[in-house]
Design a protein that fits this description.
With about 400 residues, the protein is of the alpha/beta class. Helix content is about 30%, strand content about 30%. The protein is built from 13 helices and 16 strands. The longest helix is centred in the C-terminal third of the chain and has 25 residues. It is found in: Membrane.
Amino acid sequence: MSFFKRGSLLLINFLILILLTGCWDANEPERMIYVHGLGVDYKDDRYYVYLQIINPSSLAKSEATGGEANIHVVVGRGDGKTINDAFFDVYRSTSRRIYWGHLAYIIFSENALKKDGAIVGTLGVISRYHETRYNTWIYGTKEPLFDLLKTLPQLEMSIALSRLTDPKATYRQNSLINPITLRELLIKLNEPPHQVQIPYVKLTKKDKWQTDKEPTQVVEIYGAFFVANNNVKDFIINEINGIRWTNKDATRQEITVNHGPTHVSLLVDQVKVKYKPIIKNGQFIRFQMNVEIISRIREIVKKEPLKKINNKVRKRIENEIKETFVRGLDNDFDIFRLSEKLYRRNVRIWKKIEQNGKIPLNEDSLEVYVKVKIIHGERDRNIPITEKLSD
């Protein structure tokens, strides 16, 4: 091969190598800061954002070993006249580029939920940024956001296994308030009745959980915020117990009747809910809600006929649903989203009576029928465990 040909081949190879090195703008993972949680507050005419920062390398070690690997949580804060201004205020004080691809949850303070445009503005910024995802969990709170975002899971578990990051884990064991994602929130705000239910989280009392060294606080689901365009109301769980009987994906719930020394507790494994609009002469009359639950007795201290237990459970559930429905009406909330049900079933009737996406409702607008099925063997159903052992 001549010198000229060798030179030509070397030149071509050199040019190819130049073209292959195309990652000039790549960011190495260890040189970025990762946002895991976001808090949004509003006070004194300014927005405040709180960024929970985690170390992904220690996070991976913790998940692999099942314990803590020097996990530390850092929370940064920024403020501004708009949400975007608040984010850029954080950027001015960070030492490295902030990466949003691992954002797991967003918590709104009560003030932010009540501020007109705060939710829309935050979700607009987050959803338009290419690094974020629509499966981010959404919460509301009255707690100081610094305290909430600095809280670590129990037993030194990975931060990826916290109550806020993985709410479905506890929901499968106690199906009270259904967690909601960014995608679901956007859908519900854009569909009748343009209202959404957001889990209300708080920190437990300091005497509720303790380590071998000191009391500790963890995050708990305390109730729900109901958010509409110009209306926000918080409910604790005891005020809206009926919601749990309308969660179609509920997998585990408890109900107790005969409160006192003769109480009976049942475990509800499955809930089925059907809504039927009653329409006569082209006019909407009311909704019929049919609820079927499958349950089993878990605790009983005094023998009682199965039929009697069944009737008490049925009446208790019916009352909880009706009380929750009325509680929502008192605060101008369509708590079971009946407006959406009519919109899906009969849009012509819905258009005739809707006002701003909601249909007029009163206490007589909902009839509730509950069917309870208690499963497992007849002998094991309605007698205390001590009587079974003595036979």
